[in-house]
UniProtKB/TrEMBL annotation:
One of its GO terms (molecular function) is glutathione transferase activity. It comes from Novispirillum itersonii (Aquaspirillum itersonii). InterPro entries: Glutathione-S-Trfase_C-like, Glutathione-S-Trfase_C_sf, Glutathione_S-Trfase, Glutathione_S-Trfase_N, GST_C, Thioredoxin-like_sf. The keyword Transmembrane does not apply. SUPFAM superfamilies: GST C-terminal domain-like, Thioredoxin-like. Residues 1-80 form the GST N-terminal domain. CDD domains: GST_N_Beta. Belongs to the GST superfamily. This is Glutathione S-transferase. It is an enzyme of class 2 (transferase).
């Protein structure tokens, strides 16, 4: 059975959604992040960076969310979470997945964990860093918004793929931005997020993780 080491609302959320989408048996292994469970020697043996999540698939240990997502898509092609390897559509998926992990995700981390990105922990400095991270994030989300501007229901087009679940997770992390200037407020990304919130997989995942409303 697949085992996902997770903590609610973290980067484990996308693999959690993919597992529910695929419909295979899996077990959630909670990590007590609030008490530094991800920094304990036992967990560091699985992921030396101490980050969440980790996926156990037989005798294989995988960390890094994007790697886990691609592995799940490739080992369960019937779930159609990614286009076939070697196609133009698959290249588009790689492009947007790397964009999500390399552009909005680091700046979202900077928004939530501002003290890691400055040696000046004074209130003014932290507020300035947080505001700058929020601005960068919204610049990235506007690029994603433009990708949806042609009326396509999902990031790659007509079909739901793993990058849509990933985008939902990251958009959720932006729910505390300046009111009226959140991912959900963008003209095309907003309807996409409402569409995703009607997805039974998203609903089941958010409820299983005990995430409070609003989800995005």
């Amino acid at each position: 059975m697949l085992v996902l080491h997770h903590f609610p609302g973290t980067a484990a959320m996308t693999p959690h959604m993919l597992l529910r989408h695929i419909g295979v048996p899996f077990r959630l292994e909670p990590i007590d992040r609030m008490n530094d469970g991800h920094k304990q020697p036992e967990y560091l043996k699985l992921n030396p960076s101490g980050r969440i999540p980790v996926l156990i698939d037989g005798d294989m240990v995988l960390f890094e969310t994007a790697a886990i997502c691609l592995h799940l898509a490739d080992t369960h092609p019937e779930a159609k979470l990614a286009p076939p390897v070697g196609t133009r559509e698959r290249a588009e998926l790689y492009k947007w997945l790397m964009f999500l992990t390399n552009s909005p995700q680091p700046d979202l981390i900077a928004f939530w964990y501002t003290d890691r990105f400055t040696t000046d922990h004074g209130e003014t400095a932290l507020a300035a860093c947080r505001a700058a991270a929020e601005k960068r994030c919204m610049d990235w989300f506007r690029i994603l918004d433009r990708q949806l501007a042609d009326g396509r229901p999902y990031l790659l087009g007509a079909e739901l793929t793993l990058v849509d679940y990933y985008l939902f997770m990251l958009s959720r992390w932006g729910r505390s931005f300046t009111p009226g200037q959140c991912p959900r407020d963008l003209p095309h990304l907003g309807p996409f997020l409402h569409r995703m919130m009607r997805n039974p997989v998203v609903i089941a995942t958010c409820e299983a993780e005990g995430l409070p409303q609003p989800w995005v």
